[in-house]
Amino acid sequence: MSTATLKVRVARKAAEATDIQIFELVAADGSPLPAFSAGAHIDVHLPNGIIRQYSLCNDPGERHRYLIGVLRDPASRGGSQAMHDSVHEGDLLQISGPKNHFPLAHEAQHSLLLAGGIGVTPILCMAERLAISGAEFEMHYCTRSPERTAFLQRIRNSSFASRVQMHFDDGAAAQRFDLAKVLAAPEPGTHLYVCGPKGFMDAVLATARSSGWPETQLHYEFFAAELQQSDGDTAFEVRLASSGRTLTVAANQTVTTALAAAGVEVPTSCEQGVCGTCLTRILAGEPDHRDAYLTPEEQAANDQFLPCCSRARSPLLILDL
């Protein structure tokens, strides 16, 4: 897995809405940036040493810049706070090339885009791409209030403004988002895309699945997840297929931590099971999936897992390491 980074300069930092800043990033040497597609994100290496993922929200046709939006999260683990307080115009940052685990399905006849809060960043990029290509879509954007709505004027001034319905928590009851109604009748050619806070996404996906939406028509990307821990967690072993070396993972330890302590480095980024950076093949054994990255079908296959958060149901996992 490539860990190469790009050096970029913060060309612009500006307030977009209450507690939301936008950052325009350009190549430090002035060269074109790698191409990306709607739904892509980059890993940003922050001054405090941590890495966070941010969706690109500018036109994928642009090669001279990347645009990201960052919400100051009161429950921040250091990422959004560092972006807001420690990153300034003119600063140099290291980022990854674009990655896309949330692409548009080209076979879709109609796209239903659902955004909650700062989850609008990849959704907006999708809407603009679909509009340019002449595809059929509708978008619902849920936020707390107009003052906390990123890219409000950009959407209102767009060619597809009539296809976007805004829903504000502090608005009139008539404009509130009726999730059950919107997802009540899945159509064979309609694909659903959702991004936003975990509670919003959980509600959308649960409603869609209970309404009969096929998993193949559901597309989602989590920004963060709650690490699942259980009083019933017990120790287990992992074996490295290349050497036969066997390591013990303690009850209060992650697999990546146990591997690192033994000198085996697995690339990680979010460490919450949402980005897929540490995805590792399993050759034998049954994992206990605790991620928000793999689809239910991929989890059921039990041939890969995310060792930053997932554990084992069997006494031993043999890993393709």
TrEMBL record:
It comes from the Bacteria. Pfam families: DmmA-like_N (PF22290), Fer2 (PF00111). Residues 236-321 form the 2Fe-2S ferredoxin-type domain. CDD domains: fer2, PDR_like. The keyword Repressor does not apply. Residues 3-105 form the FAD-binding FR-type domain. GO terms for molecular function: 2 iron, 2 sulfur cluster binding; metal ion binding; oxidoreductase activity. InterPro entries: 2Fe-2S_ferredoxin-like_sf, 2Fe-2S_ferredoxin-type, 2Fe2S_fd_BS, Beta-grasp_dom_sf, DmmA-like_N, FAD-bd_FR_type, FNR_nucleotide-bd, MRET. The keyword Phosphoprotein does not apply. Its cofactor is FMN. SUPFAM superfamilies: 2Fe-2S ferredoxin-like, Ferredoxin reductase-like, C-terminal NADP-linked domain, Riboflavin synthase domain-like. It comes from Parazoarcus communis SWub3 = DSM 12120. This is Oxidoreductase. Keywords: 2Fe-2S, Flavoprotein, FMN, Iron, Iron-sulfur, Metal-binding, Oxidoreductase.
